[in-house]
Every structure is written in structure tokens, then in C-alpha cells.
Amino acid sequence: GHPIGPSNIEAQQNSFLVLQDSIEESDITFLLTDSRESRWLPTLIAKARNKMLIDCALGFDTFVVMRHGMTESADKEALGCYFCSDVTAPGDSISDRLLDQQCTITRPGVAPIAAALAVELAVSWMHRPGAKPSDASDSIPGGGLSGTPQDTVPHQI
Questions:
Q1: Which helix (H) or strand (E) holds 54?
Q2: Which of 42, 53, 122, 143 could be disulfide-bonded to 68 (CB atoms 3.0-4.6 Å)?
Q3: Chain centroid to CA 150
Q4: pLDDT tens digits for 18-57?
Q5: What are the sequence ranges of the domains in the chain?
Q6: Does residue 59 contact residue 104 with C-beta atoms inside 8 Å?
Q7: The domain at 8-151 falls in which architecture?
Q8: How far apart are CA 141 and CA 147, in angstroms?
Q9: Residue numbers annotated as active site
Q10: Is the pLDDT confidence value at 132 over 80?
Q11: Phi and psi for 130 in degrees, rounded to 5?
């Protein structure tokens, strides 16, 4: 996204280590940040560390809440991620954009609704039968451990 000047390299490396340690020490990481770029690196770190991450991507009048799951083993089908289907790398999604095209502007009420749904998604995931790392079958109706809709955890809202 944004270039790092030579005078900021050490500070950026320290920020990266703090972020990495925070994700490593957490059971679930919530991303409620205001741009695509700010969600990319934490998503990548969580996936590499096999940690649960719930992402809230806010638009001007829409949002998506998505879980990036953990998998028990490499042979399990993994969940998709917010960035997997992007055709462009994370760049500057804020500068030189109209107000309704910026990720940082949201209609009042959308952010609290998205945050509440993110918490509900986390609670559903934590309290499903078996409470093991989730894979893509948890997103399919009837695909959970008991085969009932009650233990199905959606991939995104």
C-alpha cells in the first residue's frame, strides 16, 4: 500500500512485531479497521499462524463480516478469505477517491451493526459442538458435526 521511508523502517518493524505477538496471543482477532490495506497484513499473519480472525469490511452503505478459519490439518478444505479473489494487490484505497468510494466513510449505524454481528459470529463459532478448528464444511447447511443447522457457522454475513 504505502511506501515506508528509510527513517521509518525500524518503527515499522517494531509495529509488525507487536501486531504479530498480539495475534499470536489471542484466541480470536477482530479486524474493525477502516481500509483494505489495514486488514491485509493481520489476515495474512492469522492465516500463517492458524488463528481465528473475524473481519468487518465496511462500505459506504454496506458491510461484510467474514471469518477466516483455522483448519485441523492441511488436507481439510479451507475457508476462502477476503483477499483471495482480489485481482489487485492491496493499494491505497483512500486517496483520490470520491467520498462514497472511500473505505473510511460509513453511514451512521453500519459499524455497530457489523461489530455486533462479528461478535455473534465468534460466539456461534466458539459454542458449536466439538469446538475444534473449523473448516469449510462448517459453512455448509447440514455440514457441521451433527449435521443439523444449529451447529452450522456461516463463513460470512
A1: strand 52-58
A2: 53
A3: 23
A4: 999 999 999 999 998 777 778 888 988 998 898 999 998 8
A5: 8-151
A6: no
A7: 3-Layer(aba) Sandwich (3.40)
A8: 8
A9: 103
A10: no
A11: 90, -35
